[in-house]
């Protein structure tokens, strides 16, 4: 695999940075996937200047033509699907089958939005005045800063970048620092596939401190008109506050503590399958990963027995093989996961081994060499209480808590208690339970007899509470993040007509009564 040095790209030109960092394969940490040169805050500002300067000309390209650019990007992604998926697997350790699905999300997103260039509809609105017309138009917000995490290094960026470009905006993209090689490949496919002019899509590699400083300076200079951020709730608060100081509303997609409720009449085999995938797919490193199973006391023991067997039998290890989960994304996530394991208390019951997979702490049926990478046992923790840290806070990794409930009211209260509100699921065969759950859950996304994970390109994606500020990605709903409504009134009467003052009033006969 090529170990070419990766750099930022500003105005279509590579910009070398100072500090160079190696990006390694978390499944084989001795393997260097590539090297990236980190830029500073000043480079971020230069990228914002470039995006701002290019935005007017890009917005002048007719929207249907921008839609064609999105169509071409989608086809080029499709042509490079396997190669891009292999890069995802190599750089973040996502199982190859999942990586293929992630790349398909880019294709699906492009396929959805390629026609939206012909459907950026406004409206014609009737006026209360004669000889006057009212209109509404969608206009691009301007230059957009997109900051994304690396657990979905290509799918999630496409959720921002595709609709933003389609709507006539330009981009400054800062991807995660631990997925630079796949991010550079994504950027090149988009620029080449879309025939994007220089400055329309800029790429910045920088650490968190320099990114925040560059973003702050760019906002102060009026160079950035919108922020899209995917990451932790803690950083999201800082980004949201920074945007608010400049009277902007950031598009925030943050963490989750996603509940999965199992009712007495649930199909337990299906519930186990859903819990296994949503709890341990991507090694539990999704914002939509299962946090806590909330299971009715009458089926708790049966569910736990089946779930424990399924977790024990699940194949984990080398992500190039057919496995449920691979390694942690990066050493920093492995270190943080060790802290989460410290939240397990004496009143908890742990099903199976926990911690890093080693020769002294082996995993039966492990695929590959556990010593080569950042591999951890999938952990199931029973006896979780509603005031436990393990119940209340996001755990980014392969750990699932289990708590019991007595009635649906209690289950829904437990599901809402952590205060996140991204994704949720209920397993039931009772429609009334399903609709009651949907009506009262605080999550932005609800699954019925399905896992907490699984987004489609034409459905709104996003959360509430600690999971976000109500903004939504995907589908037509994301266009509200990257366009502003402009209202136009055109008076061709030849005189000044004052709204609410010069309107004609029809006089009703309020005294009229039907004869009895």
From TrEMBL:
Residues 19-488 form the Aldehyde dehydrogenase domain. It comes from the Bacteria. It comes from Microlunatus parietis. The keyword Repeat does not apply. The active site is at 253. Keywords: NAD, Oxidoreductase. The keyword Chloroplast does not apply. Homotetramer. One of its GO terms (molecular function) is aldehyde dehydrogenase (NAD+) activity. Its EC number is 1.2.1.3. Belongs to the aldehyde dehydrogenase family. Residues 1-23 are annotated as: Disordered. This is aldehyde dehydrogenase (NAD(+)).
